[in-house]
Amino acid sequence: MGIDCYKLEDKFVWDFWYARQGDEHHAFYLQYPREGDPEYIHSRQSVGHAVSKDLLHWEEKPTALQPIPGTWNDQGIATGSVVFKDGVWNMLYTGNSSRDGGGIGLARSDDLTNWTKVGEAPVFSKPDPFIANWDGEEIQASPLADPYVYPEAMDGFYYMVINAQEVNAPQGSRGCQLMLRSRNLTDWEAHKIAAYPRKFERMETSQIWSRNGLWYMYFGGVTGDEKFENWIYVSESFDGPYEARPWSRISLPGDCYFYIAKVVEDTNGQDVFLANKAIESLLGGYRMVYGEDGSVILAERGR
């Protein structure tokens, strides 16, 4: 079974994302006090921070980012992504607002510990739609949350995939992955729709990575009847289309429950699957095994 490698007695923790500096892995995650009002657990959360060298043993650090009263992001912060550019760490995060729908904000840090929000507004607002192409057709895709920025620039652009919905699609089938691009991380434009299976209401907290000549996309799929599933889609190109394979619905060995995960490369170059056990803890006991056909299975990873 998976190793319950990070849990806090005084906080709920969920939706982790990661950055690596030297031999240290930095985890950022959503947190909310256990003694807090449960009504606000998904609208007043802040961003926690922990550090590890082996992806199994973690040390809690001070809170990285939190809502600030009187600003556009005066309510909770949801899932984000960290990328290193021009000597500075950049965090794109989902910011909630009491004024409007909020948006995707930007914060910067020199050391991955002390973060400062950039600007007095989000870099783009949600749910203002982007027009993007899918299968030869232009559709309106409204971003919701969970930006993931691929950590390396390609052709001078940084590419983001984000949980979005087609504006005119029926409920239960409108979830898609909108891909945006930017040269400076502040000005974003539509690139295309990277995935649109027409079977999810939302495609949450995605991530893309490459291995053995293929591109993979993990996401948490939420169906129209609010079932939460974990999927890995595949593409021959970084910008899709990402599509399901027979093995694409992912489960942990022993059918241990989880929802939302990220893939992190350890110091040996091995892909490790770090999964969230609901809002309770981080499960760190899995390595990814790639088949010759591109398939992925999860195997136990010992201490």
TrEMBL record:
Domain Glycosyl hydrolase family 32 N-terminal: 22-195
Enzyme class: hydrolase
A Pfam family hit: Glyco_hydro_32N
SUPFAM superfamilies membership: Arabinanase/levansucrase/invertase
Keywords assigned: Glycosidase, Hydrolase
One record GO biological process: carbohydrate metabolic process
Gene3D superfamilies, A to Z: Glycosyl hydrolase domain, family 43 (2.115.10.20)
EC number: 3.2.1.26
Molecular function terms from GO: beta-fructofuranosidase activity
Family label: Belongs to the glycosyl hydrolase 32 family.
Name by which UniProt lists this protein: beta-fructofuranosidase
Protein's organism: Cohnella phaseoli
Organism lineage: Bacteria, Bacillati, Bacillota, Bacilli, Bacillales
